[in-house]
Amino acid sequence: MRPTVFIGLLGGLALNASAQGTQPFVPGDADANAQLTALVETARTNGLPIDPIVAKVQYGRVVHAEPSRIVASARAVATRLEIARDALAPASALDITAGADALGSGATKETLRAIRTASGGQPVVTPLAVLAQLLSSNVPLKKATEIVTSFLRRGATPEQLVALGNNVNDDVTHGAAALAALDARARFLSGVLAPGGTSAAAAAPGIASGVPKKP
Amino acid sequence: MSTPTPEDPIVQRAIDELRRVPAVSDDAIRQVVQAAAAARLSPADEPIERASIRSRSIRIWSAVGMAAAAAIVGFVARGAWLSNDSTVPQATVAAVPSSESAVAASRLVASKASDVVAMPQQFVLEITRAQRVSLVGDFNNWSPTAAPMTRSSDGGLWSVIVPILPGRHMYGFMVDDSIFVLDPRAQKARDPDLGTEGSVRMVGRP
Fold first, then answer.
1. ipTM, 2 decimals?
2. Burial label, B103 (beta-carbon count in 10 A; 0-12, 13-18, 19+)
3. What is the pLDDT of residues A158-200, one digit of tens each?
């Protein structure tokens, strides 16, 4: 046996051992399976990450959703992935996935483009995740976009952005108004990013207007 | 070139990946061996009785080396695949021709290494009346078998640590294989398509 054949066979075994290649998406529903299979294959051929679609299907099964609802949900995810890819290009699979999640939370294609521009070529997974989180915390889209893009331009780290989103969400969960929570938390981060001179009062307008300030 | 250490996140991820590689059944091994035998391509590959012990040894060790290489190739390919697709695929459809996969992959920009390193995350659920609890989420394709949780010595606290890629993730717990439970300590978010609520974990970039 040629070594290349041997390597190929074992390599294939290693890959296939972890993938359940024949598992149906929705057991017992041939029509839904056919639609989902076609949807995933089309997405893959079009260069979209398929895991978010598969995950949505599996989530639908976990919460016992109707097959027709699962198919519609998967289709919606595929559509958002396509919009995200176009808005964020060039983008990694993680970026596209995060973009689709943000779209599902209420973001727009223009929002995604704004964050891509503000990121300066860096990965946008975390900024988009924080945007989605802010939107889920009932922060209006315009305000959430301004905050995230502003802090991106000012060099906020992913950890700082995640902390901002988590803090706002915690505040809202404990009864605070979304905008009030955002203002308070953004003021703190603004002070951290511009030490020695930028007061909270001075920092807030810069954030609100989306005008970048150099740290 | 620096030597990787056990503390290196890449090395740790490799260890985690290897631990998750499922056992290969005897049937699968038999099928591969039979396929390999059927794929013999030239007389040079036939066993030759006149071959010296030394050459046999070389062939055996070559095969061992090839097997190791294949395992590494499989592991690396799988790791790269998972990194690009962001989560562990538990259910996939029939294989797409490799040329199409290559075209699809070429349309994605490779992420920076620091952006695709999974971060260890601990999840805890306090529940006393349960026989089995597992963590399910978009990071493991909501598979109830992917992340079984361990019960504490007093029996009331279940926990698990899993590596998760950066991003915003929805999850929950599957109790006794049938009951979906949210994390009472976590943020919540409504799924825009199914209308159901899930727990949310934000994972930042390292």
1. 0.77
2. middle
3. 999 999 999 999 999 999 999 999 999 999 999 988 653 333 3
pTM of the model: 0.66
Please tell me which of B23-37, B54-68, B108-122, B151-165 the model is most confident about, judged by mean pLDDT: B151-165
Q: What is the amino acid identity at position A189? A: L
Residue A23 has a pLDDT of: 72
Q: Give me the residues of A, 110-139, that contact B with CB < 8 A.
A: 123, 125-126, 129-130, 132-133, 136
Cβ–Cβ gap A173/B187 under 8 Å: yes
CB contact under 8 Å between B41 and A94, yes or no, is no
C-alpha distance from A206 to closest chain B C-alpha (Å): 25
At which residue do the structure tokens 């802010």 appear?
A134
Which ranges in chain B belong to alpha helices (H)?
9-20, 26-38, 53-85, 98-106
**Structure confidence at residue B51 as a pLDDT band (50, 70, 90):** very low
Domains in chain B (CATH in brackets) are 9-85 (no CATH), 117-203 (2.60.40.10)
Q: Say yes or no for a CB contact (<8 Å) between A58 and B143.
A: yes
CA distance B19 to A72: 36
Say which residues have a Cβ less than 8 Å from residue B4's Cβ, sequence separation at least 6: B10, B11
Tokens 């359940």 belong to A20
Query: Which of A159, A145, A144, A167 lies closest to A193, judged by CA?
Result: A159
- pLDDT tens-digit map of A129-154: 999 999 999 999 999 999 999 999 99
Q: Which of B78, B166, B168 sits opposite A14 (nearest CB)?
A: B78
When pLDDT is cut at 50, 70 and 90, the band that residue B5 belongs to is low
Q: How far is A99 from chain B (nearest CA, A)?
A: 10
**From the candidates A15, A69, A94, A131, which should be mutated to test the interface with B, based on the most B CB atoms within 10 A?**
A94
A45 lies within 8 A of chain B by CB: yes
A31 at B interface, C-beta within 8 A: no
Q: CA-to-CA distance for A193 and B163, rounded, in angstroms?
A: 30
Residue B116 forms contact with A (CB below 8 Å): yes
Q: How far apart are CA B130 and CA B142, in angstroms?
A: 19
More confident residue, B37 or A36: A36
- Structure tokens that stand for A171 in this block: 């505040």
Write down the H helix ranges in A89-140: 93-104, 109-119, 125-136
Residue B172 has phi, psi (to 5 degrees) of: -170, -170
CA–CA dist B67, B90 (Å, integer): 25
